[in-house]
Every structure is written in C-alpha cells, then in structure tokens.
C-alpha cells in the first residue's frame, strides 16, 4: 500500500464512522445516505440552494489554502489551484437545476446559508491559519468521497420529482468530477501535505470535526423541514419557491 493509499484508508475510516453518526442523529441525513427516495421534495430544493452557498463560501477558503501551500510546496500548490479553479464555478450547475425547479436567481439571492455552513467556513479559516492548508483540503476530501458514493441516487431523486432538466447541472458536475478524477487529486494533495503519523492523527481529528459541522447542517435541515411542515404540507412548501414537483 502506498502512502497516499494508507492516508486515504485511515481518513475513509474516520469518514465512515462520522456518516454512521449522521445517520443516527438526523432523519434527513439518513435519507441522503441510504435512501434518496425518502428525501422530501422541499428538502431537495433547499439542499441544492445550500450547494450554491457553500461553493461561493469556499472560493476565498480555497485561495487561502493555495497561499498556505505555496509557502512550502509549489508543485502541490499548482495541483490544488487547478482543482480549486474548477470547483469555483460549479455553483452555475446548481443554479441551472434550481431554475429548472422554478427557483430563479432572484429567489436564490434572498436566501442565506444555514448557520452550520457559516460556522464550518469560520472554523476552516481559523484552522487553516493555524495548521496550513490541511483543514480546507480535508473538507474537499469529505465532499469528493461522499459525492462518489452518494450523489447518483440524489440526482435520480431530483430527476424523478422535477424532471430531467432539474438534474442536468448536478449530473454534469458529477461527470466532471469523475472525468478529472477529483477524488484522486485530493488524495495526492493530502499525501503531499500530511508528512508523518502525528500529522495524520491531526488530520483525522480535523476531519471528525468537519463531520460534526455537516451533522449540524443536516440537523438544521431537519428543523427547517419540520418548521415548514408545521405550517403547510409539502406541496405549499414547494410553492413558496415557485416549484412544481411530481409528488
């Protein structure tokens, strides 16, 4: 086993434990992980909105990671910068899907990210200033690994509820990640910046903390859906966005 494979194996173990924690703590998180057909239609829309907000939030964070990498490793910084440039414009894919769902740009812009998303960003910025690029790269590891495993059923659920056009952007995003082998790119970057067992232990702890922020996000998504459902049922929730789904 190469060093890159060993690091990935260790971090995937941390990730798997964290996913189980999410499934046990959040009904929405469990549906995203295990059975996308059980994700409420309104939640699919709100989750797509959060993708847009998260991608925008990570533009300066990814630049910060590049700056920290350039301090020690120009070659790895170049690899990371190429990846970050690709990811920086991916909000357009989800904006395209949201428009097909009936949520145009003006409706997107009146919403705000969930608190957990903002807290994640603040944590990663602070951690990067202390530990270098590792925390921000670890979030990309979290995102790419989970996308590889879980995004296809979610895309299928959106397509079934809202029609083909509503999943075209997410499908393109997934295909691009696969074609550019983004998961492997992140593994290569991590292998370059995690230099010994002590740093791997730190990375594992940071990844666990990142997972806690993701759990917080799914708990907020649960609460958002409960709050909406306590007033109106699922079809009016969607109508608030101007959405018509096949319920």
Look at the structure and give the mean pLDDT.
90
* Uncertain ranges: 231-247
Total count of domains = 1
The CATH homologous superfamily is named Heme oxygenase-like
Helix content: over 70%
Shape: globular
- Per CATH, the architecture is Up-down Bundle
Classification by helices and strands: mainly alpha
Q: Helices and strands, in N-to-C order?
A: HHHHHHHHHHHH
**Span between N and C termini?**
48 Å
Topology-level CATH name: Heme Oxygenase, Chain A
Calculate Rg over CA atoms: 18 Å
CATH top-level class: Mainly Alpha
**How can the largest sheet be summarized?**
none
Number of helices: 12
Describe this structure in words.
The chain has 12 helices and no strands. The chain is mainly α and 247 residues long. The protein has one domain (3-241): Heme Oxygenase, Chain A (Up-down Bundle). Helix 8 (134-162) packs parallel to helix 11 (197-231). The longest helix is centred in the last third of the chain and has 35 residues, at 197-231. It starts with a helix and ends in a 6-residue tail after the last helix.
């Amino acid at each position: 086993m190469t060093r890159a494979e060993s690091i990935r194996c260790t971090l995937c173990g941390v990730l798997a434990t964290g996913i189980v924690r999410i499934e046990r703590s959040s009904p929405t998180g469990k549906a995203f992980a295990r059975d996308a057909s059980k994700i409420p239609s309104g939640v699919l829309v709100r989750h797509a909105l959060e993708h847009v907000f998260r991608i925008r939030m990570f533009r300066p964070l990814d630049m910060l990671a590049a700056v920290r990498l350039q301090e020690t490793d120009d070659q790895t910084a170049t690899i990371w910068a190429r990846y970050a440039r690709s990811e920086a414009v991916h909000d357009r894919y989800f904006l395209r899907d949201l428009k097909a769902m009936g949520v145009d740009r003006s409706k997107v812009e009146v919403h705000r990210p969930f608190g957990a998303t903002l807290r994640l960003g603040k944590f990663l910025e602070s951690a990067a200033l202390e530990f270098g690029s590792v925390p921000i790269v670890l979030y990309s590891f979290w995102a790419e690994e989970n996308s590889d495993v879980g995004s296809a059923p979610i895309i299928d659920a959106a397509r079934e509820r809202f029609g083909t056009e509503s999943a075209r952007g997410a499908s393109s995003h997934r295909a691009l990640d696969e074609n550019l082998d983004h998961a492997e790119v992140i593994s290569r970057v991590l292998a370059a910046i995690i230099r010994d067992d002590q740093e791997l232990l730190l990375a594992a702890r940071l990844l666990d903390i990142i997972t806690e922020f993701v759990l917080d996000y799914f708990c907020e998504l649960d609460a958002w859906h409960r709050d909406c459902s306590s007033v109106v049922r699922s079809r009016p929730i969607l109508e608030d966005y101007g959405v018509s789904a096949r319920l």
